[in-house]
Amino acid sequence: MLLRSCYRPLERCFGRIATGSGGSGGDGLMWHADLRPHASGDYSIAVVQANNNLEDQSQVFTSPSATYVGVYDGHGGPEASRFVNKHLFPFMHKFATEQGGLSADVIKKAFNATEEEFCHLVKRSLPVKPQIASVGSCCLVGAISNDVLYVANLGDSRAVLGRRVSEDDKKKAVVAERLSTDHNVSVEEVRKEVEALHPDDSHIVVYSRGVWRIKGIIQVSRSIGDVYLKKPEFNRDPFFQQFGNPVPLKRAVMTAEPSILIRKLRPQDLFLIFASDGLWEQLSDEAAVEIVFKNPRAGIAKRLVRAALNEAAKKREMRYADIKKIEKGIRRHFHDDITVVVIYLDHQNVSSSHSKLKNNAIGCTTAPVDIFSLNAEDHVEGNLVGPVF
Predict the structure, then answer these.
(1) Which end of the chain is least crowded, N or C, by CB within 10 Å?
(2) For the whole model, what pTM was predicted?
């Protein structure tokens, strides 16, 4: 009963969407929340939509003792990323409660439970929506608890740390330290890993349409969903054979096993950038860290998104002012959906951060399910009172 009472605020929180600013300087496909408090600093979040349906989903959950960040980059449709957005954090909370705190095992169990639940949804939906078997999502999660950072990921969304070179010399520049592993077969190491797991399949990784792809289809090797590439029986289903994209498989060619990094936070660790690959296609780790380090906090995530869009525009010999006039769907030809969350780490100011949260013990910011639709609607912020972590 006690556990259920803890779930209720968490479920209510993830059922709501935070108010932010749409329309961002005339870009009707951008949404952002400029600056909000978390247990050990501030955070900023921004999203820009390129696809006809926004496939990126994201959320930040805050309490006086923990901060959770999730960035979920869907592919093939928005269903998997939306599912992860709703279910992963509650599973993490459930297993952390049962095991007495956060750990790598808790995170793995939460990823596995989310994968299993999505597979059940696919099975139930197959007769009416067979295409759902080919929908999937990358999944990047960050969690800070007791000055320990956990980063877990599937796919090619990325977490990057901005770290001061010297704790004593505060005028020195920061360095970028990548904290996550890109599970993308464009990376030679990942390509060799996949090939080693399938020595009897000379076409497990194929160079197709200018990039390396698993079975000539998909670039990422790990995800939530993509059930037809994990469970061979789905490709034999008559509904999927008729309406889906069946691929003859002997065994799974993708996995939902996350890479997990655990790191004790240090005084020289200044901020974290969590972002979908839409950002990293345009900006290097170092460029993104420099932008965060050299600019004011408020609106920093939006600034990173705009920097990426400026780069995308330059590649087409255009200006960002031209790109933001392009409608969703068509805009995907110029850039991907982009989600950015910046988490500032204020090691000396934890008490002041706690004071910001004391009247709002639990807060969560969930980016809009679809930004284009948001512009015509009003949304409420999911801020709740009462301890969860």
Answers:
(1) N
(2) 0.89
